[in-house]
Specification:
787 residues; mainly alpha; Immunoglobulin-like; three-stranded mixed β-sheet; 37 helices; 60% helix; disordered N terminus; AP-1 complex subunit gamma; Clathrin_a/b/g-adaptin_app_Ig; cytoplasmic vesicle; Clathrin/coatomer_adapt-like_N
């Protein structure tokens, strides 16, 4: 039937209505009204399809509206790269409404990674040449935001012309664009030098602030500009003095402080101009004292000006009284309720502690109080500064404060605090007993957080203090009886009990209260360490060795020790099993040699009369070797085999060097075995870097009283025509070594062979680990270096 055919036709071909494109305001409302992320994506996909269709149709009237919606979609994080070419079309348009959206789209969608950004260079050049100020402002903003190095080189002449335009609006934006160009292409500095001198006389606030920023960038990147602008230091001083006394204008004052932004920028520029220049520093000394004393500290704006003043005082050749004033200002900052101000004060004092140590020492109680801060960053900075303030005169008082802090500090600070206490105690210990007590307290409080070499350092210290052997073993025995969870403490205690267990049983130590200890208690304590689930395999090795050594120091029967040793012959740990097998072999086969093999370790330190006696013995041995007959080749071979017996027991031991074929060589080798090693030869100076006139030299000193310490002095010189700024020297060492970096004498290496920069590295190598230095230098920019 006809009616039925019409009905079927209407169902087969339904009519679909296409939704019209939304306006920007309607699109924003619909996206915000989406209840789920899926609904939001659906709305954006539909609208992006309309925008693509409009771009394909080439609608010039509504192109800027479509691009405005696409920019909003881009701000939400959705892809909008297909609108890049539309930005170029709008920028080339003659209508201001199109240019405004086109330049905004170029700033958001284009950057140096896209080649399309180079296509707008001619459009920007044309717009800068026009006399329409809004269009010039748009072009300058775009150039200062996404201008590449190629664009900056091409458009620098146009920007230079706009710096002298009568309109303050255009000049201000041209100055900011020039700052971007200098950062991108430092060699353009010569283009902008002449206009800056004229712009300093401007009274417009925005122009003056932008000019100070431009001069700062020029001085940081060009030595010629730095030399050129040192002539305007009196003018800058006068501008800042006017700001401090009369003010610039009331509309730019903040909390009663006259134009703090302009003051901070001028102070920063003065710091650059006065660095390493005596005449400029002398010109600004009086002004800096005036700013430091007249600025209101009750507001944050005043604190910002004061902090910049302190940095300027410390960076130039200022008078001694002015530097003390700067340190006192930082001391007042420590009492401020604002955590940010306290943090910058601690950071600045940490930089000054090397150059003005006595002035910073006056604020030591306040710094120590900052250790109790709840803020982790503040307490960490306070800990670093407290450790830097430790010296030989205050080491006892500071160690008490730091040990008290160690007991209550957060877990993430315990490792740094324990390591700092150990290093400070090693440097400034007044007596060996105090040094031992300090290390024992650290091991008892935070033994699991100390460095790996703490055990070796303490055993070396105890072994070298013969008069404190009885005292040390009793202290360690008491600490071990109270707590066996601190593994470094258990290891040191086990070593000490094994070495000096006979002194522990004698009980004739006068420094501490008498303690009666019998053999069974000592053995039971070591067995407890062996059986504890908290003991590491290395700790069990210390305890097993201690039991073995006690077999020669105790008067009773050794059956109990032999039973314990035999148990660990089947231990799963290979190292512990090997030790037990070797010790059991000593009992069964070489019992007559056990007492000689397990003798006490020799003293580590070789000072005083003992060293003289050993030197005398070495001299006598050398005299005997001259008259001794040379052994035959077979005898020399047997001697090597005999000396190699002990090496075969430990697979990683080094073989003895080959015998000297000269007469008496083998006898010299034998006689030299128990003698003191010869003093290490001096290390020659080393040149590690030389490029573009910058040279780094290393000089080495090994103090005779501490052979494990190596002092490395780094000297940086500059024979080029320009200063090297932002010079940083860093170093890293393995965990077995301890490194301390002293503050450098400056961060700018003067040109033409000026005063060099020196920095001291202290490397402590208690385990005598061989290491080699690998210096690397990385230039950060054209005239700044880091090594």
């Amino acid at each position: 039937m006809p009616g039925q055919r019409v009905f079927l036709h209407s169902r087969t071909l339904p009519v679909r209505m296409v939704a019209p494109s939304l306006k920007l305001q309607d699109l924003i409302e619909e996206i915000r009204g989406a209840k789920t992320q899926a609904q939001e994506r659906e709305v954006i996909q539909k609208e992006c399809a309309h925008i693509r269709a409009s771009f394909r149709d080439g609608d010039p009237v509504h192109r800027h509206r479509q691009l405005a919606k696409l920019l909003y979609v881009h701000m939400l994080g959705y892809p909008a790269h297909f609108g890049q070419m539309e930005c170029l079309k709008l920028i080339a348009s003659s209508r201001f409404t199109d240019k405004r959206v086109g330049y905004l789209g170029a700033m958001l969608l284009l950057d140096e990674r896209h080649d399309a950004h180079l296509l707008i260079t001619n459009s920007i050049k044309n717009d800068l040449s026009q006399g329409i100020q809004p269009v010039q402002g748009l072009a300058l903003c775009t150039l200062s935001t996404m201008g590449s190095a190629e664009m900056c080189r091409d458009l620098a002449p146009e920007v230079e012309k706009l710096l002298l335009q009568p309109s303050p609006y255009v000049r201000k934006k041209a100055i900011l664009t020039a700052v971007h160009m200098i950062r991108k292409v430092p060699e353009l500095s010569s283009v902008f030098l002449p206009p800056c001198v004229h712009l300093l006389h401007e009274r417009h606030h925005g122009i003056l602030l932008g000019t100070i920023t431009l001069i700062t960038e020029l001085c940081e990147r060009s030595p010629a500009a730095l030399k050129h602008f040192r002539k305007v230091v009196p003018q800058l001083v006068q501008i800042l003095r006017t700001l401090v006394t009369t003010g610039y204008s009331t509309e730019h004052s903040i909390s009663g402080v006259s134009d703090p932004f302009l003051q901070v920028q001028i102070l920063r520029l003065l710091r650059i101009l006065g660095r390493n220049h005596e005449e400029s520093s002398e010109t600004m000394n009086d002004l800096l004292a005036q700013v430091a004393t007249n600025t209101d500290t009750s507001r944050n704006a005043g604190n910002a000006v004061l902090f910049e003043t302190v940095l300027t005082i410390m960076d130039i050749h200022s008078a001694a009284g002015l530097r003390v004033l700067a340190v006192n200002i930082l001391g007042r900052f420590l009492l401020n309720s604002d955590r940010n101000i306290r943090y910058v004060a601690l950071t600045s004092l940490l930089r000054l502690v090397q150059s003005d140590h006595s002035a910073v020492q006056r604020h030591r109680p306040t710094v120590v109080d900052c250790l109790q801060e709840t803020d982790a960053s503040l307490s960490r900075r306070a800990l670093e500064l407290s450790l830097a303030l430790v010296n030989s005169s205050n080491v006892r008082a500071m160690m008490q404060e730091l040990q008290a802090f160690l007991e209550s500090c957060p877990p993430d600070l315990r490792a740094d605090c324990a390591s700092g206490i150990l290093l400070a105690a090693e440097r400034f210990a007044p007596t060996k007993r105090w040094h031992i007590d300090t290390i024992l307290h650290v091991l008892t409080t935070a033994g699991t957080h100390v460095r790996d070499d703490a055990v070796a350092n303490l055993t070396q210290l105890i072994g070298g203090a013969q008069e404190l052997h009885a005292y040390s073993v009793r202290r360690l025995y008491n600490a071990l009886a109270e707590d066996i969870s601190q593994q470094p403490l258990v290891q040191v205690a086990a070593w000490c009990i094994g070495e000096y267990g006979d002194l522990l049983l004698e009980g004739n130590c006068e420094e501490i209260e008498p303690l009666q200890v019998d053999e069974e208690e000592v053995l039971a304590l070591l067995e407890k360490v062996l059986q504890s689930h908290m003991s590491l395999p290395a700790t069990r090795g210390y305890a097993l060795t201690a039991l073995m050594k006690l077999s020669t120091r105790l008067q009773g029967d050794n059956n109990r020790i032999r039973q314990v040793v035999s148990i660990y012959r089947s231990c799963l740990d290979v190292e512990l099993q090997q030790r037990a097998v070797e010790y059991d072999t000593l009992f069964r086969k070489y019992d007559h040699m056990r007492a000689a093999i397990l003798e006490k370790m020799p003293l580590v330190e070789r000072d005083g009369p003992q060293a003289d006696e050993e030197a005398k013995q070495s001299k006598e041995a050398a005299q005997l070797s001259e008259a001794a007959p040379a052994p035959t080749e077979s005898q020399a071979s047997q001697l090597l085999d005999l000396l190699d017996l002990l090496d075969r027991a430990s697979g990683d031991a080094q073989h003895p060097p080959p015998l000297d074929p000269s007469p008496g060589g083998a006898l010299v080798y034998l006689l030299d075995l128990p003698c003191a090693p010869p003093p290490p030869a001096p290390i020659p100076d080393l040149k590690v870097f030389e490029r573009e006139g910058v040279q780094l030299n290393l000089s080495f000193i090994r103090p005779p009283e501490n052979p494990a310490l190596l002092l490395i002095t780094i000297t940086a010189t500059n024979s080029s025509e320009g200063d090297v700024t932002n010079f940083i020297c860093q170093a890293a060492v393995p965990k077995s070594l301890q490194l301390q970096l002293q503050a450098p004498s400056g961060n700018t290496v003067p040109a033409r062979g000026g005063l060099p920069i020196t920095q001291l590295f202290r490397i402590l190598n208690p385990n005598k680990v061989s290491f080699r230095s690998s210096p690397k230098a990385r230039p950060r920019d054209s005239r700044s270096h880091g090594c």
